[in-house]
Amino acid sequence: MNPVRVGLLGLGTVGGGTFNVLRRNAQEIARRAGRGIEITYAAAREYDPARLPGIESVKVTDDAFAVVDDPDIDIVVELIGGYEPARELVLKAIANGKHVVTANKALIALHGNEIFSAAQQRGVMVAFEAAVAGGIPIIKAVREGLAGNQIEWIAGIINGTGNFILTEMRDKGRDFADVLAEAQQLGYAEADPTFDVEGIDAAHKLTILASIAFGIPLQFDKVYTEGISYITREDVSYAEQLGYRIKHLGVARRTAAGVELRVHPTLIPDRRLIANVDGVMNAVLVKADAVGPTLYYGAGAGAEPTASAVVADLVDVTRTLTADPENRVPHLAFQPDALSDLKILPVEDIETAYYLRMCASDRPGVLADITRILGDRGISIEAVLQKEPPEGEQQVPIIMLTRVVREKQMQEAIEQIEALQSVEGKVTRIRLEHLKSS
Amino acid sequence: MNPVRVGLLGLGTVGGGTFNVLRRNAQEIARRAGRGIEITYAAAREYDPARLPGIESVKVTDDAFAVVDDPDIDIVVELIGGYEPARELVLKAIANGKHVVTANKALIALHGNEIFSAAQQRGVMVAFEAAVAGGIPIIKAVREGLAGNQIEWIAGIINGTGNFILTEMRDKGRDFADVLAEAQQLGYAEADPTFDVEGIDAAHKLTILASIAFGIPLQFDKVYTEGISYITREDVSYAEQLGYRIKHLGVARRTAAGVELRVHPTLIPDRRLIANVDGVMNAVLVKADAVGPTLYYGAGAGAEPTASAVVADLVDVTRTLTADPENRVPHLAFQPDALSDLKILPVEDIETAYYLRMCASDRPGVLADITRILGDRGISIEAVLQKEPPEGEQQVPIIMLTRVVREKQMQEAIEQIEALQSVEGKVTRIRLEHLKSS
C-alpha cells in the first residue's frame, strides 16, 4: 500500500522533532501501521536544515495554506501553535476533507467545540494527543482505556516549567524569582513566562481533560486559574515540615453540585506518588469508579516526547483511512507479517548489577579473597556493607553491590566464593537495576 | 442502534465485576460507544445472584459452548481463566466469527500465537487489555500510545501479591513466610501461591508486554523466572540501608545481542517512582527512544479494576462492528449528541482543605482570636505550626492546615483574620488536596 502523505505545518521544536522521529523510526512505524507515513510537504517561514537530515527530499513552502489546499495531502499536522492562523488552517484542512493532527492545546481548549463540529460534519478526524501532557498517552488512556468507568476526578501536574520551579525551590531552598530566571536561561521557561507560571497553559490542558473525562463541552473560560508566583520558599519549607509537597495542579472533579475546574498551587501529602514527580516531568492521576486510581507519568514537553504523541495520532488516523480489518490495531502491535525473529537471550548472557550477601569468618584477609575473585572476572564493586558479628558469633554478614556484569561471570564468581573456607553456606544474589532513563 | 450482544463466560470475581460495571455504568458507556453493550447470555457452573443485581434478566447456562455457539452473540468475553477449556472456547468463538475479549494472561502467553493467527484468518478481534496489569491500560499505551517509538526496555511490577509481600516485609520487618500466610488469609494470595510468588504469573504478563513492545512472537518458555521466596527480611533491610528497595520486576530489554526476558527480585534506587509503588498496586515503566521514560500505575487485579479493562476492550471492539465514521473514538470521548450540560462551579463553591500562613504578634490571645474566626465558620483545624519569632522581631509566622471547607467560607474568614489588629499584612492561603483514592 502507498504511504500516507502528511503535510506538516511548522518545522520548529515539535515540528522538527516530528520530522526526525518519523524518519528515524520509519520502519518500526510502518510495521505497526501496516503502511508508511511520510511527510511530503511542509510549511515553515524559516528552519535549520542541519537539524533535519533528509529534509531536502521534502517540498517546503512558506505558505501554510498551500499545504492545506494540496489535494495530494491526506493528513495535515498543525504544529504552529497559537490561535490564529492555526484555527483558520485547521478549519480549511477539515473543509478540504483532510484529517488533522495537532499539538495545539490553546486552539483545542478555546476553539475545539467549533473545530470538532466541523470535523464531525465533514467525516474527518482531529487528533490531539500531543496537546495534553506531551508524550504521555493520557488522552488515549482516559478516552479509551477508562471507557468503562465513571470518572470522579483528575489531578495533574501538567506544566513542566511550573513543576521544575517548585522542585528547585524545594531542593535548593531558593526563591521563585531566582529559579524562574534560571529556568529561562535553561530554556525551560519562555522569555514571557506568563502562560506557564500563571497557570494558563495548565488551564488549557485541564479544559481538555475535563471534557473527555466527564463528557462536557470545552469551557476554558470557566476554569479558575491561579499561578505559582506567590509561593515563597518559606511556604515550601513549612509544607514539608508538615509532611506535604507543593505542586501546581490542575484539578477537575465531578460533585453532586457540578464540576470543579481549577488550576492552583496545592499541598499534597508527601507519600503520594504524584507528590514525588519532580523537575520538568508531568503526571496525571485519575480516579474512576471501577478501576480506582491510575497514574500516568512522563515528559510533558520537548521536541521528541511531543513528537511521540503526534506520531501515535498519525498511526491512529492512518488506520481509519481504510475500513479493512487489516487496518485495525494488530494483536501484537506490529502487523502479523512484520513480527521479527529477535533472539531471546539465555540468562547467562543477561547483564545486570548485583546485590550479594554472604556469611564470612570475621578475620583479616577474607574480604580480600572475595574481592580478588570478583576482580579477576572484571566485576567492579560499587559498595560494601560489613556488619558487626552478632553477639558471640564468629561469622559476619558481608553485603556488596556490584556494577553491571554478565550473569555468567557472576555465576562463576559466586561458585568460587562459595568454595572459600572462610565463607559459610550459599551466597544470596539479587539483581539490581538502576532503571535510569538515559 | 441495537445494543451489542455479549456472551460472558464465567461469573466469578472478574466475571461478576464485569457484569456489575457494565450494568452500573451502562449509560456512560453507551454515551461513549454510541450504542449499548449488553450481556445477554452467560455461562457459569455456580454463582451468587445476591452479588449480581439484575442477573435475573440474563440467560445463564452451565454450558460455555452453548454461549460460544449462539448465533445471537456478537462478542464472547472469556473470564474462566486457565488453559483449557478456555483455549478451546476461544478458538470455537473465533471459528464462529465472533470477536473475543479475554483477561486470561496464561492463555495469551502460551497460546496467543495460535489464537491470533486464527483470529486474523477469520477477520475477528481478540482483545486482552485485562491480561496485563489489571485496570492499567498498558496494552493500549504501549501498542498505540507509543506507536511512534522504538521501545528500549520495560520494567514492571506486574504481580500485586508479590508486591504486597515485599512491601509488608519492608514496612514491618517481617519474614516472607509470615507475610505470605497473612496474604493468604486476606485473600491477596491463593491457597497455592506458586503462580504469584514464583513469578509465573508475572512471566505470563511479561511475555505479552515484550511481544507488543518489540514486535516478536509470544515466547513464554524463554522467560527466565525467579521467585521472591528466597528474599529475607535482612536483605530488605540491607538494601534499604544502601538506598534501595527490593521489587519483584518483570524486565524486557532489547540489546544488540538479543532480547532479555526476565522476572526476578530486583534492587531499585529508592528515589525512583517505581520503587515507591507499594502494596497490591502495579506499575509499568517503559523506556522508549522518542518519548523517554513513561510510567503507568494502578490496580493490577481485583474484580472491578480488571472489569474496567474488559469493558474498555468491549468498547473498542464495538467500534469495529461497523465502518461508519460515527464508530470512531469521539473527539471528546463521548458521542457529540451525548455531551452533558453539567454546571461548572464558580470558585466560591469549590471545596478543599487549606494551608494558611500569616504573620501575627507574639502575644497571648492571638491564636485564640484566629481560631475563633475559623470556628465560627465551621472551619476545623488539622494542624498548627507556630514558629519562634526571628531574632529581635515581635511578629511570628503561624501556619495552619484546615479540613475541607467551602471556598466562600474561607474567603470570609481570611478577610476577618486580616482585619485583626494582631495580624500583619495578608494571609497566604494555598489549597490542599489529600488525593485519597477512596
List keywords for this structure.
Rossmann fold; globular; alpha/beta; 25% strand; Alpha-Beta Plaits; six-stranded mixed β-sheet; Dihydrodipicolinate Reductase, domain 2; 14 helices; 438 residues; homodimer; 3 domains
CATH topology of the largest domain in chain A: Rossmann fold
What would you say the CATH architecture of the largest domain in chain A is? 3-Layer(aba) Sandwich
Helix content of chain A: 25-40%
Number of helical segments with 4 or more residues of chain A: 14
Describe this protein's structure.
- The structure is a homodimer of 438-residue chains.
- Helices cover 35% and strands 25% of the residues of chain A.
- With 438 residues, chain A is of the alpha/beta class.
- In chain A, the strands form 3 sheets. Chain A has a 6-stranded parallel beta sheet, sandwiched between helices. A 6-stranded mixed beta sheet of chain A has the order 8-10-9-7-11-12.
- In chain A, helix 5 runs parallel beside helix 10 and helix 13 (366-376) packs antiparallel against helix 14 (407-418).
- The longest helix of chain A is centred in the N-terminal third of the chain and has 18 residues, at 105-122.
- At the A-B interface, helix 1, helix 2, helix 5, helix 6 and helix 10 of A face helix 1, helix 2, helix 5, helix 6 and helix 10 of B.
